[in-house]
Design goal:
Layout lengths: L5 E6 L2 E5 L6 H18 L3 E6 L3 E6 L5 H13 L10 E6 L9 H8 L3 H8 L4 E6 L6 E4 L14 E4 L3 E5 L2 E4 L4 E3 L2 E5 L20 E6 L2 H9 L3
Parallel strand pairs: 5-13
Antiparallel strand pairs: 1-2, 2-4, 3-4, 6-7, 6-13, 7-10, 8-11, 9-10, 9-12
């Protein structure tokens, strides 16, 4: 049985629900379950929810009875009606060419790994989209292999080009737009992550499973020319 999360009112119509602060896929599944629970039980009282690593922030348009909500959470867990939503599994191409891998040498020096070892570890597992934020469509992907844990840049760049892929701490991420940034850039994808003109503006969704595979610079150019 999962305890009702700690609640903190941010404003009169904004409340944050917080679970265990551990960043893990198991904990994130609980967050997703609670997010679905809020959408089902608050309905017209709910404007939107924003889920992340271990919290769900709810924006409401009228008062809610927290005691009733706690009881509904208990009842939901005793039933078998709530099922985990299947994650999408996405394959994302990445080019590690030195033109795009601006911080590869820094990562190699920090980890004592070779160029090939960094690439292999980065592609060695599927990553969970824990959060979409910072920029429109920016996916925070975890959990990075511990041998690749590298601090972010002490002095962020004034500009990082869109579709650049970086690592920082225990995560890897992809810049959807040209922007300032302090992640260690190790490659680039030819895919577009954010397009305001598309019906679905973001390439990624919360809970997606993402795996990278390597492409050459020529393959990068060819895919990019197709406007994917």
């Amino acid at each position: 049985m999962i305890d009702f999360p700690h609640t903190m009112w941010i404003s009169q119509y904004t409340v944050r629900f917080a679970f265990n602060e551990d960043i893990s896929q198991e904990n994130f599944q609980i967050v997703q379950k609670f997010d679905r629970f809020l959408k089902k039980n608050l309905q017209h009282k709910l404007v939107e929810t924003v889920a992340s690593y271990h919290t769900v922030t709810a924006y409401i348009n009228q008062k809610i009875d927290m005691k009733v909500l706690q009881k509904q959470w208990l009842v939901m867990q005793m039933s078998t009606t709530d099922e985990d939503v299947a994650s999408r599994h996405l394959q994302i191409p990445i080019c590690y060419d030195e033109e795009f891998a601006l911080d590869m040498q820094r990562v190699m020096d920090s980890t004592c790994l070779s160029y090939e070892e960094v690439k292999a570890l980065h592609m060695s597992k599927a990553y969970l989209v824990y959060l979409i934020g910072f920029l429109p469509g920016f996916p925070y992907l975890g959990d990075l292999h511990e041998q690749l844990f590298v601090p972010r840049l002490k002095k962020p760049r004034k500009s990082v080009s869109a579709s650049s892929i970086g690592i920082g701490g225990s995560q890897t991420g992809i810049y959807p737009l040209d922007s300032p940034g302090g992640w260690n850039i190790i490659g680039k994808t030819p895919f577009t992550l954010f397009d305001v003109h598309e019906k679905k503006s973001f390439l990624f969704s919360l809970g997606d499973q993402v795996r990278f595979y390597e492409i050459t610079k020529q393959e990068f150019i060819e895919i990019k020319s197709k406007g994917v």
